[in-house]
Write the structure tokens for this entry.
Amino acid sequence: MNFRKLFLVTSLATAAATSMAQPYYYPTYSVTNNAPNPITNILMFWQAPSHGYGPGVAWVISPMGITADGNGSVTTFQDLGKPVYPDSLLLMGLYHDAEGEHLTLFMNPNTAQAVQNIAFGTVFANSNETQLISDIHAISNSPDSNTWNAQLSDIFTFASGDAANIPNGDSTISAWTTPAPSGSPTPGQIAIWSDGVGIGSFSASIQGTRPVPAPAALIPFLAGLIGTARRRIRR
């Protein structure tokens, strides 16, 4: 028996199986909206600095939004695009009432309590609520990402800047929610501005997928591995 051949083919096949088995995570939220109007144009942001990934957007997850005075759930249309468990999450959306549109944040519950009834400009000193609302509209209403790169940059600046460094005495606190590593639900609160009024709550949990290549794609892949092994053995 050619043990070198057996070891090489086995190692390549194991590496392929490990790569294909990597979980791709996606967040899901169970939401209670206690306000008389819906929350719409929801975007979800995530980051995993422990894995080397800064803020990323998991696409528009609920253009229709969460209905008024009711419970609902929102789930990303796609996974995070990276086989990493996110360290923190932030949802942004819009709330509509007779006064107009308001920025809405799905927040860490302790932070939400700390900023309740405080004006937007005081909590987020370097950001403009009107501009962020316009940016959210641009992103959620157009399927072509090439048309809203500047708007996404604005929102990333807000999400990783003001939203992550809210003044709180001599220190700062963050609006981002840290999901439980076990995948169990993590609680949070929903606040709207211009004055940080709480309008509801949510629980977030991280689900995992294990995408498996279709047979038509898998066969050439394995054939390529075996061919590579044969070429290396002949040498």
Strands lie at 24-33, 39-48, 53-62, 70-75, 88-97, 100-107, 166-168, 171-173, 186-192, 197-209. Residues 1-20, 59-64, 210-234 have pLDDT under 50 and may be disordered. The longest helix spans residues 215-234. The helical segments are 3-20, 109-114, 120-123, 129-141, 149-160, 215-234.
